Amino acid sequence: MFEITVISVLMMCLGTTAYATITSSSFKVVSDVRLSDYTNNVLNVVKNVYSHITCSSQCETDCYSFSYNKKTKECKTYNRELCTGDSDQQSSNTLVFVKTRSNDVSVVTYFTSSTGMTRGKAKQYCDDHGGHLLVLDSNAKWKHFSSHQAYQDLTLSVGEYWISMTFDDSVVECDAKAKDEPWRYTGWGRWASENREPNRCSYQYCVKLSNSRMRSTECISILKAICKSGCIDSTIN
């Protein structure tokens, strides 16, 4: 991650007189952002924008982040800070920037739904309440989550909850002919040790946190959601 100071200059010429309006804001570029999690937070979409510098001038009142697609020249502004490290599938054509903070650390909170719901509705619940489903794809993120006060206050060490991870057999191979039908997943995971988790890949495409361990499960299961709002500093990966 690095910081840039973006300066946009707009010149308007009337006869021999030139008027310049200068808007200056400080942003930092972030990577690994799952932009699909922030569709409800888009403030404005501007087409045919020449550069990310010009795009930055659109990020003003109530704007905390912007994205710029170098290929399509599309600029989007957002009313939330976009979190780094929540995806490894961000397009190489897309640049994402967030406004810098004085201490470079934003407040992270975790919260749950009061009732159970399917995985699709759990994602929508988190989106509607200013967060997104908990991402657990590294030991550092697990340590941050499990050491947070909310983990103790909400007794999140027990019970079953939706988290963001899902499997797709076009990306992660399903060994449907083997015992317990394991997913051939090689990424980080705090998996339950029994039954060769993650397993039953022919029909268990979603992942739950069950008594602090991850298990694959059917996406139509009824569970509470664990949501996260705010961003963990990008040094956590």
Q: How would you describe this structure in keywords?
A:
mainly beta, Hepatocyte Growth Factor, 6-stranded antiparallel β-sheet, 6-stranded mixed β-sheet, 14 strands
How would you sum up this structure, described in words?
31% of the residues are buried. The model is unreliable at 1-25 and 233-237 (pLDDT under 50). This protein has 237 residues and is mainly β. It folds into two domains: 3-99, Hepatocyte Growth Factor; 109-229, Mannose-Binding Protein A, subunit A (Mannose-Binding Protein A, Chain A). Helix content is 12%, strand content 34%. The protein is built from four helices and 14 strands. The strands form three sheets. A six-stranded antiparallel beta sheet has the order 1-2-6-4-5-3. Strands 7, 8, 9, 12, 13 and 14 form a six-stranded mixed beta sheet that branches. The chain has a two-stranded antiparallel ribbon with strand order 10-11.
Layout of secondary structure:
Layout: E1 3-14, E2 17-30, E3 42-46, H1 52-56, E4 65-69, E5 74-78, E6 94-99, E7 109-112, H2 119-128, E8 132-133, H3 139-147, H4 149-153, E9 160-166, E10 173-174, E11 183-184, E12 206-210, E13 213-217, E14 224-229
Parallel strand pairs: 9-14
Antiparallel strand pairs: 1-2, 2-6, 3-5, 4-5, 4-6, 7-14, 8-14, 9-12, 10-11, 12-13
CATH class of the largest domain: Alpha Beta
Please give the oligomerization state of what you see.
single chain
Percent of residues in β-strands: 25-35%
Percentage of residues in helical conformation:
10-25%
Q: Give the CA-CA distance, first to last residue.
A: 12 Å
Name of the CATH architecture of the largest domain: Roll
The helix count comes to 4
Q: What is the averaged pLDDT score?
A: 82
